[in-house]
């Protein structure tokens, strides 16, 4: 998932790279009410799994997607997207895999 | 994770490819008391995340590793390994990423 700005006093979103290889990065993100400050346009494909919590994600031209535990999707390179909601009442854990 | 034989009447382990690309395969595995029938020796690196449940994994020469939700590890190519236990009382969900 793209970086997202912390909203108000809820603290920073946590980003942790779990594995980095040429052409592959596996990242764990913990959100807690965070949303994207802007649209993101990435050079690489990204595959996202929502492990825990709940979120909504907008893909440009496709509307909003509701994500619960176990849901996953592919965000192809240069498909603009943003996180429009993550549950403010609990943590949301994402696994994001960026690859060439 | 490697294929594992079902033990007795507990039914088959579930394997589902979530994404397949050249040099990358993301797989979801659901175990329920399943263990590996033998050691596995793979040609590609494998990164494993235990999403839900509990398991134990043996890596040759390194002994047994206990895995709970959120635990992850890299199994380098040709490091022999086997699943020695998964919780028989609930399902265990793995995410396995095979990559070149």
UniProtKB/TrEMBL annotation, chains A, B:
Pfam families: Cupin_2. InterPro entries: Cupin_2, RmlC-like_jellyroll, RmlC_Cupin_sf. Residues 33-97 form the Cupin type-2 domain. Coiled coil: none annotated. This is Cupin domain-containing protein. It comes from Alterirhizorhabdus solaris.
């Amino acid at each position: 998932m793209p970086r997202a700005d912390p909203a108000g006093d809820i603290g920073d979103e946590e980003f942790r790279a779990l594995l980095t290889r040429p052409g592959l990065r596996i990242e764990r993100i913990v959100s807690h009410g965070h949303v994207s400050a802007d649209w993101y346009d990435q050079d690489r494909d990204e595959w996202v799994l929502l492990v825990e919590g709940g979120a909504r994600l907008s893909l440009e031209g496709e509307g909003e997607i509701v994500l619960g535990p176990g849901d996953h999707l592919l965000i192809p390179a240069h498909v603009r997207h943003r996180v429009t909601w993550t549950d403010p009442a609990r943590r949301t854990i994402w696994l994001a895999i960026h690859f060439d």
